[in-house]
Amino acid sequence: MGFSDLLSGVSIGLRIYGWANTFNGALRQVQRLKQGAELRDVMLSVAADAAMNYAFNKAFGYALKGIAKVGGRLAARGGKAVKEVLHNHHVLPKFLVGSQKGITRKLSDKLHTEFHRRLYHNLAKEFKRYEGKYNRPFNRFRGKFEWKEILQNDTERMKMLQILTDTTAGFDADFGQDLLPSLFEELAGQL
Predict the structure, then answer these.
(1) Is 28 exposed, middle or buried (0-12, 13-18, 19+ CB in 10 A)?
(2) Where exactly are the structural domains of the chain?
């Protein structure tokens, strides 16, 4: 029995309860009628009870459908309720003087963060020596300003491209991605 089957059973049970409640209410009103209550009052009371039960059942039915929909999504995602956000990952990062209109590939938030964590770690090994020149820690070299100046030197640019290529290849291998061909395509377009 699936989650939606369970909710369907609950929904049917509540509807039957509502109908029975309406029927019992109607029987009580018939008793009132026999005891001398006015027909108009009895009819209004029965109609009000029926309308309230109908509205409750409708509202509860919509709520159960919503719960079933969310429950189905949760089950499909292994219990994760948060919708996964995809980022347009620039294969040649903008901070490394890549173009805003450069080639992008969709990556989940988690993978996108992991890629950049690895890239910064690998770049830090080679470029940490520039901290003194810019009077800030390497992890603050996130803007184009520092990188644009550093990468004017062809030797440094080649080192950066090698680190970027190695990081991308390792990331592709570890996470089953295919970013490296797109990186080569982007680099070829810039030559």
Answers:
(1) middle
(2) 3-76, 86-190
